[in-house]
């Protein structure tokens, strides 16, 4: 494969100015990530420590293999401030336990008792989806008081999906291990109850459908926590617990021991540990990925900074130039990359369709680097069949069977979001850069369109058109659209799996590729009807 020759001069004034703007966005990202690491008030943490408990993040660190990575997922869901804070009351991610790729989902019992708000539920459902799609072992670190009752109408109907997926994964042979460190109440009792393995910590684990106060109200029985649902009772009498751990450290040891007994994982490909790094520094990414998404850049410059040895073989380099398609390797894992280099024309759509079919034929995962305002508009392009050509690309994305990973690196507007494998097209993972924007169209275009519609409506109604008032409304709308199309807003809604520092792109992709190569990859040779 050809080694890319960069055209970036990182010392130019424009590059240095852009770097400063991107670093400001990354500072904001780090601020929000710091907020997401909140584990409750100090007094609640101190109380837990006195009870012999660890914090959720300490439990994760002790469970993981020494020097294992931990790819945290959806840390900013709920950032909009309506619930218990960014990330909800769980810490979730992927790491290695006894050398096995595993999803770890830890309740933050020191924050609101680990109660489940809407954001936490959304996050847990998405984490379960990732586990099922990628054949991952799930380890739940349980300490939750159950649903946040003031939000019960937003939680109850969909909450059952958590339990459903535990047992569906079990049917597929995918193991769920639950370690119970504290309360696991009401519906939360079914998390360990439906798991393949359950470990209860002596004296601290309390698992029951209804606590002593509710039992008293329902049956007039007076009973204490331990008798009703303590670790020893469930380990010796009910059988809900499979292992009685002396303390939290013992519980984590037992969990690792269980993982050792599981059937050996059979990945589709185990990459060689000898990897050629890119020839160019990841730091340079901040010099050319524009903080202002209205500015353009060559997507090949980014590809060269994330692929092995900065080597890639570009497919149809002279045809449909606004879409870059390339075969390469990342962390020694073969991939196909589809990256925007501008608005999508018919030729670009046809090239992308062809490339997706090739990757499916060769059983190669696809990475989409999304930065597009959508498909080209205008009478000439409509006559040329932009709709049918765009439909072919969306058809190929929809029916592709190889795993896909999407990163929003700039604009994600209109049908370009669909054609470039947006959330609706079920990528295995989807991440955003902090400069990314996602919407039907850009703020300026949307406010301009609304201004024209109002003017036409006034003319048709035969009433005066207040130009100044309309401009004020348009300006307000532009600000609102800009806010609601930001990466922060999207991540708060759970539209991505996290916002990443662009300099970490190669690391994040390497982990995700190890995950998707964890099982057999089989592409599709069966697509829907292509309108010719």
Task: Record the SSE blueprint.
Elements: E1 2-3, H1 13-36, H2 42-50, H3 56-63, E2 70-72, E3 90-97, E4 100-107, H4 118-133, E5 137-144, H5 152-171, E6 176-185, H6 190-194, E7 197-201, E8 206-208, H7 212-219, H8 225-229, H9 231-238, E9 243-245, H10 248-261, H11 285-288, H12 299-303, E10 311-315, E11 323-330, E12 333-340, H13 346-361, E13 366-372, H14 379-383, H15 386-399, E14 404-413, H16 415-419, E15 429-432, E16 437-439, H17 443-461, H18 467-484, H19 487-493, H20 505-516
Parallel strand pairs: 4-5, 5-6, 6-7, 6-8, 7-9, 12-13, 13-14, 14-15, 14-16
Antiparallel strand pairs: 1-10, 2-3, 3-4, 10-11, 11-12
Please outline the major beta sheet.
8 strands, mixed
- Estimate the helix proportion, in percent: 40-55%
How many helices does DSSP assign?
Answer: 20
The assembly state of the depicted protein chains is single chain
Shape: globular
**First-last Cα distance:** 33 Å
SS class: alpha/beta
Strand content: 15-25%
Question: Which consecutive residue ranges, at least 5 long each, have pLDDT under 50?
Answer: none
The strand count comes to 16
Give the rounded overall mean pLDDT.
93
Rg, please? 26 Å
Walk me through the structure.
The two termini are 33 Å apart. The chain has 20 helices and 16 strands. Helix 4 (118-133) runs parallel beside helix 5. The mean pLDDT is 93. Helices cover 42% and strands 18% of the residues. It is globular and about 80 Å long. The chain is an alpha/beta fold. Helix 4 (118-133) links the parallel strand 4 and strand 5.
């Amino acid at each position: 494969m050809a080694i890319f020759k960069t055209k970036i001069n990182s010392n130019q004034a424009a590059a240095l100015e852009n770097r400063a703007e991107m670093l400001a966005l990354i500072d904001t990202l780090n601020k929000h990530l710091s907020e997401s690491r909140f584990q409750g008030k100090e007094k609640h943490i101190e109380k837990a420590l006195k009870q012999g408990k660890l914090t959720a993040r300490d439990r994760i660190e002790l469970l993981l293999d020494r020097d294992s990575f931990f790819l945290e997922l959806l840390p900013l869901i709920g950032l909009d401030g309506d619930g218990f804070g960014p990330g909800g009351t769980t810490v979730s991610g992927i790491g290695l336990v006894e050398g096995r790729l595993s999803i770890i989902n830890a309740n933050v019992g020191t924050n609101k008792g680990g109660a489940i708000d809407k954001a936490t539920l959304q996050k847990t459902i998405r984490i379960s989806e990732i586990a099922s799609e990628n054949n991952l072992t799930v380890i739940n670190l349980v300490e939750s008081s159950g649903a946040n009752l003031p939000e019960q109408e937003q939680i109850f109907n969909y909450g059952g999906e958590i339990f459903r997926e535990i047992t569906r994964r079990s049917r597929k042979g995918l193991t769920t291990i639950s370690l119970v460190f504290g309360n696991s109440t009401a519906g939360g009792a079914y998390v360990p109850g439906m798991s393949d393995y359950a470990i209860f910590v002596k004296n601290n684990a309390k698992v029951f459908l209804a606590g002593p106060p509710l039992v008293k109200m329902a049956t007039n029985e007076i009973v204490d926590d331990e008798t009703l649902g303590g670790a020893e009772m469930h380990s010796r009498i009910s059988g809900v617990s499979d292992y009685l751990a002396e303390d939290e450290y013992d519980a984590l040891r037992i969990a690792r021991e269980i993982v050792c007994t599981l059937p050996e994982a059979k990945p589709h490909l185990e990459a060689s540990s000898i990897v050629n790094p890119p020839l160019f520094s990841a730091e340079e990414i901040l010099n050319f990925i524009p903080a202002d998404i209205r500015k353009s850049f060559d997507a090949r410059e980014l590809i060269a900074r994330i692929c092995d040895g900065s080597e890639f073989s570009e497919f149809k380099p002279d045809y449909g130039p606004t879409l870059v398609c390339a075969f390469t390797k990342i962390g020694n894992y073969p991939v196909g990359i589809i990256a925007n280099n501008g608005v999508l024309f018919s030729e670009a759509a046809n090239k992308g369709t062809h490339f997706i079919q090739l990757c499916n034929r060769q059983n190669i995962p696809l990475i989409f680097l999304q930065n597009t305002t959508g498909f080209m508009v205008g009478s000439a392009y409509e006559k040329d069949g932009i709709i049918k050509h765009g439909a072919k690309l969306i058809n190929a994305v929809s029916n592709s069977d190889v795993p896909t990973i999407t990163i929003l690196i700039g604009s994600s507007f209109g049908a370009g979001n669909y054609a470039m494998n947006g959330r609706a097209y079920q990528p295995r993972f989807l991440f955003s850069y902090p400069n990314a924007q996602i919407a039907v169209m850009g703020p300026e275009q949307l406010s301009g369109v609304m201004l024209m519609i109002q003017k036409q409506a006034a003319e048709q109604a035969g009433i005066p058109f207040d130009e100044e008032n309309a401009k004020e409304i348009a300006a307000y709308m532009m600000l609102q659209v800009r806010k609601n199309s930001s990466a922060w807003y999207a991540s708060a809604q759970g539209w991505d799996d996290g916002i990443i520092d662009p300099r970490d792109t190669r690391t994040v992709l390497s982990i995700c590729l190890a995950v998707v190569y964890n099982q057999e990859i089989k592409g599709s040779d069966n697509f829907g009807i292509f309108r010719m």
